[in-house]
Amino acid sequence: MHINRGLVFWGIALITAGAVALAIQSGTIDADAARELWRFWPVVLIVVGLSIIAARTPLALLVTILAGLTVGGFGGTLVAGWPEGIGFGCSGTADQSRTETGTFSGSAEVDLEFNCGDLEVTAGDAGGWEVTATYASDAEPEISSANDSLSVRAEGAPWFTDRRQEWEVTVPTDVDLALKVDANAASSRLDLAGARLTELNLSANAGSVFLDLTGAEVRDLEVDVNAGSASIVVGEGTSGNGSLSVNAGSLELCVTDGLVVAITLDDENITFGHNLDESGLDRSGDTWQTGDGTPDLVLDVDGNAGSFTLNPEEGCE
Question: How far is CA 29 from the centre of its chain?
Fold first, then answer.
């Protein structure tokens, strides 16, 4: 007998969330104790990851039940009332600052590892780069550079206290860049309009991302979102290939008129919702296309316990 693990996961998660919420509201579970549970929020990422890894093993059902219980337990605290000061352990006051500048002699690699706070990356017009990093306590980031590389790394894990960061990074549009961004417990904004990207690898965990690729050439795009949300804008001049993935979160894609985008998505995954059937696009198998002719941008989209929305009514801001 085949068991639909997606239905099992959501059934257990909803039952557990309701039971936990009722227990908190009735006083059976202390509200302060429930708030303390959120100090261990990375457990959600762990069990969701385990459920993906174990999907085709004999342990699949057991891990699915565990994931449903864990997600439902955390969700129940939210139903009963958003925990005060949750903040994902991202605290401290960013009151110390450091600025560095430089140039690239040709194509370059840019690697940003960011934990806790606000990250802003902007594609500038000139050939130079600039990093202004504001940080809390003794959590000064490590900045290293060469003629063909730039690396900025935050110290410590995002759920440690007194680690808040605020970075403003400017990269050039007149050189080919391989850009890698790893953002955890962060609010990230990447304005990369007009950039020339041989590679864009963006990983966001427990946070939100806004990504503007209007007019950008992205030969290899990879966006992974876990326990968070991402809004992506593409427009005239955008080109390339890539993949978008979300687990326990949401993806939004805004496409301006005239850009032809081909989107391939597994339509049989019950844990992942989308609005492509209602969007009026031409469909061939598991691929939807926004216009006629050869696509300017080709995307593979997948996810678990998440959603994908094309051109949401409120936009992608």
Answer: 32
